[in-house]
Amino acid sequence: MPLRNFSFRNIAVDTFNQATESIILTWKEIAALLGLNQDIYKNPLHRPLSKPVSAILIGAGNRGNIYADYALIHPNELNITGVADQNAVRNGRFARKHNIPAMNRFYNWEAVFAREKFADAVIIATPDALHAGPCLRALDAGYDVLLEKPIALTEEECRLIHEKAKATGRIVGVCHVLRYSPYFKQLKEIITSNTIGDIVSVQHIEPIGFDHMAHSYVRGNWHNSTKSSPIILAKSCHDTDILRWLINEPIEDIQCFGGLRLFTKENAPAGSTERCTDNCAVEDTCPFSALQIYYRDRKRLYVFDLPEQRRNWDYIILKKLKTTDYGRCVYRMDNDQPDHLTVNMRFGKNITAAFSMEGLTSYEGRSTRIMGTKGDIVGDMEAYTITDFRTGQKTTWSLKTDFHGGGDHRLVQDWVQAVGHHDAQILSSTIDVSVVSHLMAFAAEKSRLNHTIEEVKLHK
Fold first, then answer.
1. What are the distances in angstroms from CA 341 to CA 230, 373, 445?
2. What angle do CA 360, 366, 369 make, to 5 degrees?
3. What's the distance, CA 351 to chain centroid?
4. Are 225 and 446 in contact (CB under 8 A)?
5. Contact (Cβ atoms closer than 8 angstroms) between residue 53 and residue 427
6. In what order do the strands lie in the sheet with 352-358?
7. Given pLDDT bands bounded at 50, 70 and 90, which one contains residue 458?
8. Which of 77, 110, 269, 394 would disulfide-bridge 22, Cβ 3.0–4.6 Å?
9. pLDDT recorded at residue 2
10. pLDDT digit string (tens) for 107-123?
């Protein structure tokens, strides 16, 4: 329905009389106003399953538990029948939660595949360096796969998994959960409907947050790009995927700038020590103090696998801070991940996109600006505003949600449907489309290191 023919009284919003005023609407109201699909989560390919999909979790950390918890909420759709994790605490907790028998508990991923196939699929949520190995073995053994991002650490391994999935005919879903968030689902629907005309350019920013940056990419598992993966891949392949998905044109060229500005030995304050627990003279004023973050504020404690009983937490946390990287000074680590970078991209039809990943911010989340020929969209994961160039009318949506936009279990639901019905097309983020986002990230890192403009090609 053309916007000029729509009667605003039909949605009972009298204040639309002022064309430039922004009104916060529900998605159903926006969809009615613009003539769009009101139920963006109803997948017409979904249908009842003959039986629950059975799956083995490999990697029972934070992300693995989030995906597997879908089985606790929807036991008629997903049943977790096995677990592999070398950490005895995580292994035991997960087994008790999902009632997994001892014979189906493993302490390394190789042991899963030493057995005859005993489930429909595997969920791989191991550290980045342990994605390719179990995924390739799972495909050879006849399992379908849900694979946490990144797909693998190298371009060669990503291509190998892609080729193996095609050769075996198995389903590999990649955990690009942002595609399933209300915010990005709605942006995709609006763009596809031509509401703002043809896309001309996009600006997108991912602010990590200074404390998250310090926790994960200075002290944490992803602090060293050669031991884990480059931050543009580890953190921001979500964003390269979202940009490619929204723009819906082939990626052609990429250029990247960025580096490590703050977290270096040269920037260590006078009086600082190797660890925050070593009577550091500036610990009480340092925003990255491990004692403040983990011991006093009790933040991000999932990395310590603390016991359920809290009486010994003080002792255990202090011990961890004295013996692990999480207690080390952020200026004295062997980290090499950039704390800021900017990526320029050119897509088909000469559409351009600029992406910034910022580690030194007081806020987290993502912000997006989409410029079209008929209007534009400005959003920040929890709200967006569409402006019509001709009328000046502004339409706004808002919803408070988590940093993944509530997409985790919607992704799992699609994957379960895809596995249960042997139909990869039910998934939004199949290996075929997800591998492109990784090739974009590898090209960006190559550009950053070599000061080059890189071409991106799915097929060499």
1. 12, 28, 10
2. 115
3. 24
4. no
5. no
6. 22-25, 394-398, 383-388, 375-379, 367-372, 199-207, 352-358, 340-347, 251-259, 453-455
7. confident
8. 394
9. 34
10. 999 999 999 999 999 99
What is the DSSP code (8-state) at residue 395?
Answer: E
Query: Cα–Cα–Cα angle for 287, 289, 292, nearest 5°?
Result: 100
Distance CA 144, CA 168 (A): 10
Q: How far is CA 113 from CA 58, 87, 124, in A?
A: 11, 19, 13
Q: Residue 199 corresponds to which tokens in the numbers above?
A: 């896309």
Give the tokens for residue 90.
Answer: 């995580």
Query: For residues 323 and 277, what is the distance between their CA atoms, to the nearest angstrom?
Result: 10
Residue 256, CA distances (Å) to 228, 344, 444 in order: 20, 6, 5
Amino acid at 282: V
**pLDDT tens-digit series, residues 176-228:** 999 998 899 999 999 999 999 999 999 999 999 999 999 999 999 999 998 88
Question: Distances from the Cα of 347 to the Cαs of 253, 302, 379, in angstroms?
Answer: 7, 40, 21
Task: List the structure tokens of 178.
Answer: 């942002």
Rounded CA-CA distance 90/85 in Å is 7
Mean pLDDT of 263-275: 97
